[in-house]
Each structure stands twice: as C-alpha cells, then as structure tokens.
Amino acid sequence: MNPIPYGKQNITQNDIDQVVKVLKSDYLTQGPNIDLFEQNFSKYVGSNYSVAVSNGTAALHLSVIALGLKNGDKVITSPLTFAATANSIRYCGGEVIFSDIDPKTYLLDYDSVKNLIESYPKGTFKGIIPVDFAGRAVDLEKFKNLAIENEMWILEDSCHSPGGFFIDSKNKHQKCGNGKYADLSIFSFHPVKHIACGEGGMITTNNKTLYKKLRILRTHGITKLNNDFKNQLDVASGLNQKESITYPKWYMEMQILGYNYRITEIQAALGISQLKRAKTGVKKRRKIAEFYFNFFNGKHYIINQSGLVEGHAYHLYVLEVKNRLGLYNHLLKNKIYAQIHYFPCHLMPYYRNLGYNIGDFPVIEKYYKNCISIPMYPELNENQLKIITNTINSFYESKY
Known about the structure:
Blueprint: H1 13-23, H2 32-45, E1 49-53, H3 56-66, E2 74-77, H4 83-91, E3 95-98, H5 110-118, E4 125-129, H6 140-149, E5 153-157, E6 165-167, E7 173-175, E8 184-188, E9 201-205, H7 208-217, E10 222-223, H8 227-236, E11 253-254, H9 265-275, H10 278-296, E12 302-305, E13 317-321, H11 324-333, H12 349-352, H13 362-370, E14 371-374, H14 382-399
Parallel strand pairs: 2-3, 2-4, 4-5, 5-8
Antiparallel strand pairs: 1-9, 6-7, 8-9, 10-11, 12-13, 13-14
Helix pairs in contact: 1-9, 2-9, 3-4, 11-14
C-alpha cells in the first residue's frame, strides 16, 4: 500500500504551466501576478484589500506592526495554534496572554476571554488574535463587540480556514477574512494548506489606511515618489510652485522601518492557478469530513471529533481518542501518517520560561492528551478513506 500522509499539495498541469510561463517572462518578482493574486483572493474571501507576503508568519508579523503593537503591550490569543501566532506578538516585544479553548469547538473560548478582560482595568489589553483552528470559523461578531467595548483590535488567524464562514446574528454567512469583524486577517499558503504556493501568505482587510501601511512594510518601508516629499525637495532646490523637478523612475524613499517580506511572481502565479479550484477543494474536504463523522459517530473509543459544522473549511479532521499514542503507532505501522495539532503553545519551553505552567489551561491540556489529526486533503479517494477508518477501528476492536 502506498503511504497516506495527513496532508499534501495537489499540483496540476495548469499549475506547472503557469509557473513555467513566469520563468520564461521578464519578472520573477514584483511583477503583474502579485497584484492579480491579491485581487482574486479578495474576491474569494470578500475583502476590499489583500496584501501578499512571503509566508503566514510574515503576515502575522506585519499585521501586529501595522496595528501599532509596542513593547509591553498585552495581546490575548489561543494556546491551540502553531507557535507563529503567539511569536508574532513577541517579535514586537508584546506580552502573550493565553486564554483557554472551548472543548466543543476547539476555538478560543469567548466567555474565558471576556472574564479575563473584565478582571483587569480597561485598556490593559491591546488586541485579540482568535484562531480558526482546523478550519472552523471563530464567531468574530461576538469578539468584535467585546473588542469595541474595550478599545481593542482583532487580528483573525485564518491560516486553516480559506473558504470557511460563520453565521452572524442576522443569519448571514461571514466568510473568513472578509474584513467585516476583524481589522486584519491572515492566511498561509504552505503546501498542506488549501492553497499551496510552496510558501506564501496573505493579509486581508477593509481598512485602506492599514492596507497602505502593509504594502510599504513588506518592502523595507520603501516606496516610490511621494508627493509630499517631492514638494519638500522642490522647495529645497529653490524652485517655486510653477516649477518642478522630473524625478527618474529609479527614485525611491524609505519612509519607515520595514522588511523584505515580498512574495515572488512564481509563488503568485501558482497561487492564482490554485485559487481557481479552491471552492471545489473545500467541497471535497467537507465530503471527507462527512464520511469520517458518519463512520466514527457513536464509536466507543471516540471522545470527541471535528464533526459536521456548517462553514467549516476542514484543513484538519481531529479525533479525540483513547490511547492516542497506541493509535498513532498503529497507523504508522500501516503507512498512515497522522499528526498532532498542536502541542499547547503555553507549554513550549520558551513560553514556560515566560511564566506559564502545566495546569494553567486545563481544557486544552486535556484535549492535547487525546487529539490526533487523521488524513485530510481533497484527493483522498473512497478506498483510502475506508483503509484509514478500518485501520483505526481494527486497532480498538482488537484491544478493547
């Protein structure tokens, strides 16, 4: 039997053709495909603006900078996430404040966050970074109202959820990254994600000021000719208002301290091609989730599972099971490669050194002891799904 990974990219001939086309063109970076990728992505998620960057971590870093995070500022986030979410706060010298998850949804628990905020003086916290873990969309409407009351910003970590949505209080679908309830949202285009660019990331927003700031931050803080600065140069050159200097195309100016977080033309071209079948990919993921749910529902060894949730984008399908380690090794022996998402961020040695300890967040710690992510990607066929589920079932039937 061929190995079955927990996730994988799908590269079509059209993907290859588009990349080859770029390799034969005049631009390998800073060309027309980047703008086109941004425009197409905005249409897909429903945002006014998109800014493509080198990876999801860069998207997080630039976002907290654009939102004004400073040394010592406190930001709330989930401990059930890849470390980059919390690390982005630390990059700016901010203080990471973890809050526990809801055991049913695996998402940042609203009541826990609300109680945390209300237990401190107003103004203590600067922002919240909710995480759409596994592809399930956070109810951002509730968090946004809480943020407004406490003068905080919202940065949505949507790396798992392009194509996902939640249903708001008016019964409307709110797509992840559409900018209605988050100041900024970020996405990743790592190979196991819905849209694969090799590496790559995107920031979406409806805020034009933040959009402009992000565009300059990703390119060293450098921009082309600025009219205000041009006028200053004209005055310094002794010109009157009727005269003007024609500046050459190579002119540029560094306005703020920025970074080289650009995405390449190659990655953008691949992203454009992948985006064309993104909706189909999410539909297939939901069908796979339905198969898993129906198979595992009611099984004695299942503690909890991702389940069938409207709007879920199913980057991952998570089971909480008895004897997780035994199952993991059994799958490995049968060439089925599961994964664990995630080791609680607050228990990583780095964050332990900042004062977090075992027992601080009992819900996620209990979840971690039992969680396992089983294969989830659109190209899984019915035969592979039967092999996966039957292999899991046989482990428990033989031991319990």
